[in-house]
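[recover] target loaded
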């Protein structure tokens, strides 16, 4: 029987993104508005507990408001309500002290670092506001989270902000339920918060009233300045002149690698780049990643920002520091590249910055807030109008990827491959990727990876694990780390083939069933194959727990192994041996490829002898190496100075070409039960076209031929095996022309084509695939 105004009590647990976003103040206001009494508190698993008393109608209205009026950043994984008898023990509603316990029952996590909100930006530039021109301005809806937190629950005393006690004015805001800074943990002001200061390269303090304004002036004059931001140091320089950028490249030992830039605003971005509606939305989102844009015809910035490319990586200011730096600068944009040496992690500590970056920069703009977790800028590119993550870090981490493997609560740690690495922790149905680690080819990056994995385990309360997953390659540093962790936790070590992991990460993204088979195109530079060879152009029939290799690119010789990746002309010569004799190769090389050999023709003679005698010779089916060879033959790139450079520059050349103008044939043969794409035939047609066709048209047509061959093999295998889904993953999946051609052909056959949207298709997404494969293998045991 319904009784009007009957009193009741409810205990409510909320999990998801409910800490660090103004959720407690929101709950407070909703409860007080309805006359409810009780409390809310943060829990140690990043969830919250709410206990309220009042009439049952009011409590039900309160529960409705949780879903319909929640804060913009709130996301629920689970809401649990337990109804109890009314006791009348509460006098009011309050925000109680946090507890370290785990009670919510769902999956909770703190939000990523969030870009400055419009309300804070307005205050930043409002004269008379007490935070006018203060670089650390934040509220409950914006600012750092992941980069300042040390442990859960998320309260100020467990962040690096605990070193800055609140002044009386900030404390009043922090304790006022009607203020948007109510219980906003990173809040501060010029009286009580962090301070900026300027140093010269020797570490001497420069006595100036406004360090940011002075740093901007120095940048405008052409100096190189290291800037401490939210997740680490950037190295900044002006964008409208060549000389400062050339000098930066010389000092930083990065000859050609594209540099990210930060523009004043969206209108400025549109003055030098083409910006679609989707790209604009991402640029201005709370994530504020670097978005790779096509240069416009009016591009007026230095060509040395992204030499040889038709694209430029652009981001907008995402903190008060950046807003002010560009506010004071006369430049339309500033180079804002990661503060590190090649192969080293991004610098986050002030003293470390002086030591490591002193030889690169002229000045340091620093602050005294400690960065707990380094967090590089995320990078996204729209490929065939589809947002594709290149680097998943600031603005995304520690948000998990939901995957369908939830039959049992197995916890798995994955360490990734070797290049562009992230680690991952799988707990329940959520896979938590670490921030961007980089290339794990040194002890410093290996230590960074281990520290990041352990922090993610701590953040997710993952104490006991069931397995460690790693790459099949026994020589990787990451494999050594996995072996160490396997021994430490006394759990199985599961080795996962590289391209299987690529495809499994994509299968997990789309929540494919555990027993579903797909045709997978896995194309990249290199991955250790089950036969010990270097794979990289694979068509697999795959499910989570196993795969069959039924298609691939032709195996090509690699004289000197990885030297062919660094010097792509070596790869070109090795491929020529299947259709040209030695004299013709030497003649062609002398005319078209000689710049690609450090020791001239005698080096080519040695390479040919290596191939003939099979000395220091490995074989590869890599699409990346084929693209490298084409790049060298067309005179695009003779030395790889950053990962993927020859293929990336080839794509930029092809962007201006006509893929239908040059006849480049491809052939598919059957060998040892596999369909094999003859890449030598494609290179032969390219070489035969060089004297009569434009390089840009040859490049476009070559990419089209490779894409058509991959699509044809995939379709044939799909029909043969009765499969209707074809997936594409791997680093070559960033090539827009190849992806678009493959997709168009597959969809023309009424088959489903899937590509990445949440996980990077390159090696940065491998850890998710390793977790997924390891889980499936454990279930199969």
């Amino acid at each position: 029987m319904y009784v009007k105004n009957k009193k009741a009590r409810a205990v409510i647990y909320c999990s998801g993104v409910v800490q660090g976003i103004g959720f407690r103040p929101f709950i407070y206001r909703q409860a007080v508005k309805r006359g409810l009494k009780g409390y809310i508190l943060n829990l140690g698993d990043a969830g919250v507990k709410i206990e309220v008393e009042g009439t049952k109608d009011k409590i039900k209205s309160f529960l409705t408001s949780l879903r319909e009026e929640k804060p913009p950043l709130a996301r629920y994984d689970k809401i649990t309500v337990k109804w109890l008898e009314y006791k009348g023990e509460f006098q009011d509603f309050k925000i109680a002290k946090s507890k370290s316990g785990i009670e919510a029952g769902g999956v909770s996590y703190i939000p990523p670092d969030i870009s400055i909100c419009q309300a804070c930006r307005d205050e930043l530039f409002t004269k008379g506001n007490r935070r006018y021109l203060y670089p650390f301005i934040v509220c409950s809806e914006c600012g750092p989270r992941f980069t300042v937190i040390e442990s859960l629950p998320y309260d100020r005393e467990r962040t690096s902000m605990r070193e800055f006690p609140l002044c009386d004015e900030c404390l009043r805001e922090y304790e006022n339920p009607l203020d948007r800074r109510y219980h906003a943990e990173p809040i501060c002001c010029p009286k009580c918060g962090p301070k900026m200061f300027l140093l010269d390269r020797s570490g001497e303090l420069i006595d100036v009233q406004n360090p940011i304004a002075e740093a901007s002036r120095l940048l405008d004059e052409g100096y190189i300045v290291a800037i401490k931001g939210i997740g680490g140091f950037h190295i900044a320089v002006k964008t409208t002149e060549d000389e400062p950028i050339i000098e930066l490249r010389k000092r930083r030992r990065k000859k050609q690698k594209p540099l990210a830039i930060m523009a004043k605003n969206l209108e400025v971005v549109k003055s030098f780049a083409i910006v679609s509606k989707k790209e604009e939305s991402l640029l201005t989102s709370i994530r504020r990643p670097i978005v790779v844009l096509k240069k416009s015809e009016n591009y007026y910035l230095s060509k040395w920002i992204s030499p040889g490319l038709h694209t430029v990586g652009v981001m907008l200011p995402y903190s008060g520091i950046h807003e002010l730096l560009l506010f004071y600068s006369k430049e339309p944009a500033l180079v804002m590249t990661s503060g590190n040496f090649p192969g080293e992690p991004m610098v986050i500590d002030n003293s470390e910055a002086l030591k490591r970056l002193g030889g690169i920069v002229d000045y340091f703009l620093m602050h005294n807030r400690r960065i707990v977790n380094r967090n590089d800028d995320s990078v996204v590119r729209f490929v065939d109008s589809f947002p594709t993550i290149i680097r998943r870090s600031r603005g995304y981490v520690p948000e998990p990827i939901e995957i369908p493997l939830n039959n049992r609560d197995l916890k798995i740690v994955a360490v990734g491959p070797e290049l562009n690495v992230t680690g991952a922790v799988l707990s329940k149905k959520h896979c938590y990727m670490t921030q961007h680690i980089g290339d794990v080819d040194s002890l410093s990056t290996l230590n960074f990876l281990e520290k990041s994995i352990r922090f993610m385990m701590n953040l997710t309360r993952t104490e006991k694990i069931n397995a460690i997953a790693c790459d099949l390659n026994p020589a990787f540093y990451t494999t050594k780390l996995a072996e160490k962790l396997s021994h430490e936790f006394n759990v199985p070590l599961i080795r996962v083939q590289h391209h299987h992991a690529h495809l499994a990460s994509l299968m997990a993204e789309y929540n494919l069933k555990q027993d579903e088979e797909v045709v997978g195109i896995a194309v990249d530079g290199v991955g250790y194959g089950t036969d010990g060879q270097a794979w990289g152009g694979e068509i697999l029939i795959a499910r989570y727990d196993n795969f069959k290799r039924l298609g691939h690119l032709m195996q090509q010789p690699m004289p000197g192994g990885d030297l062919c990746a660094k010097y792509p002309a070596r790869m070109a010569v090795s491929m020529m041996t299947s259709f040209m004799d030695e004299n013709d190769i030497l003649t062609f090389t002398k005319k078209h490829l000689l710049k690609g050999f450090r020791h001239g023709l005698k080096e080519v003679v040695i390479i040919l002898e290596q191939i003939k005698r099979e000395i220091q010779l490995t074989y590869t089916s890599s699409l990346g190496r084929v693209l490298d060879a084409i790049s060298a033959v067309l005179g695009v790139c003779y030395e790889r100075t950053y990962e993927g450079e020859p293929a990336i520059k080839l794509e930029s050349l092809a962007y201006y070409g006509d893929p239908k103008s040059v006849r480049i044939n491809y052939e598919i043969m059957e060998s040892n039960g596999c369909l094999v794409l003859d890449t030598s035939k494609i290179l032969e047609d390219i070489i035969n076209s060089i004297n009569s066709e434009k390089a840009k048209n040859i490049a476009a047509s070559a990419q089209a031929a490779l894409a058509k061959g991959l699509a044809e093999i995939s379709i044939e295998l799909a029909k043969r095996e009765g499969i209707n889904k074809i997936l594409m993953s791997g680093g070559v999946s960033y090539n827009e022309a190849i992806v678009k051609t493959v997709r168009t052909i597959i969809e023309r056959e009424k088959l489903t084509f899937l590509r990445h949207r949440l996980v990077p298709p390159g090696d940065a997404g491998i850890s998710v695939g390793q977790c997924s494969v390891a889980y499936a293998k454990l279930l199969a045991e």
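[recover] notes: The first strand starts at residue 7 and ends at 17.
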